[in-house]
Amino acid sequence: MSSATPLNSLRDERALMNSLLELMQQEQRSLVAADIDMLTQLTERKTALVAQLSAGAARRHAALAAAGFAAGEEGMDAWLASAGDADAAALWRGLLDDTRAAKELNRLNGMLVNKQLAHTQGALNTLRPAAQSGNFYGPSGQTTTSTPSRRLVVG
């Protein structure tokens, strides 16, 4: 990576964000297909990308502070205004747009996860109706309404 400037950081962050968006789209396809093995792999990769994005934002904030601007989004706006660089401004707008798109994909993927979870819970509930209602078969083969217990003899 080249010297730490807000512009260099923007380039790096934008590339990482594009990778994250692609990964989240893969995640969505895997959620729809209920491909658990792929989801596990994607989650590990997504976690690493999010960590890299966080480090990139920290580098950008440090570069802004070193250039005499606030180390945050407002500092980025001020830096862009002072630089007058249309390409840098376009990169920044693109990064913000990509971040919003990632947030929306994350929301949709979360809804898919919840749908899968509800489906799985429903299937589990179907398999355990007797346990939920308290009806069990006793040693005689007759149903009982209480759970069988083990008695311990202490003596």
Automatic annotation (TrEMBL):
Required for the efficient initiation of filament assembly. InterPro entries: FlgN-like, FlgN-like_sf. Residues 138-149 have a biased composition (Low complexity). This is Flagellar protein FlgN. The keyword Hydrolase does not apply. Keywords: Bacterial flagellum biogenesis, Cell projection, Cilium, Flagellum. Residues 130-155 are annotated as: Disordered. It comes from Janthinobacterium fluminis. Belongs to the FlgN family. It comes from the Bacteria.
